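Form 7-S
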Amino acid sequence: DLIMEKVYLQTYSLGSAMRDDFMGSLEKVSQIGYTGVEFAGGYGDMEAGKLKTYLNQLDLDPISTHVGLEMIEGQLPYLAELGVQYVICPGTSFPSYERTLEVAAELNRLGKLAAEYGLKVGYHNHTHEFAKFNDKYILDIIMENTDPEYVLIQLDVGWATCAGIDVPAYLVEHSGRIQAIHVKETN
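Output:
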């Protein structure tokens, strides 16, 4: 039996509510009983220290955030002060095998830099990471070419299911490498 002791909400799920009432939305997340949040789409224009204090008051753990690959490096000081553990690239394009290797190299570089701040870099999939180059899934190529000490995989089981992946089997196959999951309904 799978028991999830800690369940976090990605703020992207709240849509425009986060824009319209950032602090009130976080308060509602706390009232519902979530362990914490994964940010996506910003931090309400709050200074990291003030946001961290507010989250502490709400008993919400800011476990992670989604940040575009090209913006990760610039946000590391803010994210370290905020107290996140993981900064996740929410996806990028992979027009070629060579580009896939370039992305893996950049994740490694950013992961080593993030480690200096006490953070770990990750990658989040959609369906296109289950296209293949050289008879391997793009996500598998990313995993094979990144250092697990610095780069984790956040498997979005909804998108993986849409791509036709047997998610339980995939999780077993990559046990230890996939350190976070996103769960959502799919059609």
